[in-house]
Design goal:
Shape: elongated
Number of strands: 0
Strand content: under 5%
Mean pLDDT: 93
Number of helices: 5
Largest sheet: none
Helix content: over 70%
Low-confidence stretches: none
Distance between the termini: 32 Å
Order of helices and strands: HHHHH
Radius of gyration: 20 Å
Structural class: mainly alpha
Length: 175
């Protein structure tokens, strides 16, 4: 694929930043709703908070995480960033992959179970051990996601660690 022009790269980078901002802000919102969820005083409010958490996850977090990964892939593929040229890019890929896996296999299911239990049991869900585990998982898991997303954004801005010494390795092998 040919390299992007500066204008094309800036549009793609803008889309990437927008997806990252949506993902981060929405997970922060999920954390705040989950925090409020602990003090629900009626069953309808408890269910509404759990439902809102899942609504945000389904319709904003998942698409924005996918958009972030897709735009990052195109940025690496079509610019000088590459996939493995810079340590900061590698770290971002590792952290992002970890967040996607964690969200897919733990956070998303915990949210769904908490919503289902609160729909069936109302305020009695607060006495259910499975609900307690899953709602705490959403609370702690969303906080962890926010922290790591902020770290990833910081890495994007600061670009620490620099370029990997790929050329030096090739020269050492040739000698």
């Amino acid at each position: 694929m040919p390299k992007l022009s500066i204008k094309q790269k800036n549009w793609l980078l803008s889309a990437h930043v927008a997806f990252a901002a949506l993902w981060t802000g929405t997970v922060l919102s999920m954390f705040l709703l989950s925090l409020r969820n602990r003090n629900a005083d009626n069953g309808d409010a408890l269910y509404a908070l759990n439902s809102a958490i899942n609504l945000l996850d389904d319709y904003i977090v998942i698409p924005s995480a996918i958009g972030s990964v897709i735009t990052a892939t195109f940025l690496c593929w079509t610019t000088n960033y590459g996939f493995t040229k810079f340590y900061w890019v590698i770290v971002k890929w590792i952290l992002t992959t970890g967040l996607v896996v964690f969200g897919t296999f733990w956070l998303f299911p915990w949210g769904n179970v908490a919503e289902d239990i609160s729909a069936q049991s109302g305020l009695q869900a607060l006495k259910n051990q499975i609900y307690g585990f899953d709602s705490r998982g959403v609370l702690i898991g969303s906080l962890i996601q926010v922290i790591f997303l902020v770290v990833i954004i910081g890495i994007s801005v600061l670009k620490p660690w620099g370029r990997r010494p790929i050329k030096e390795k090739k020269q050492a092998i040739a000698d």
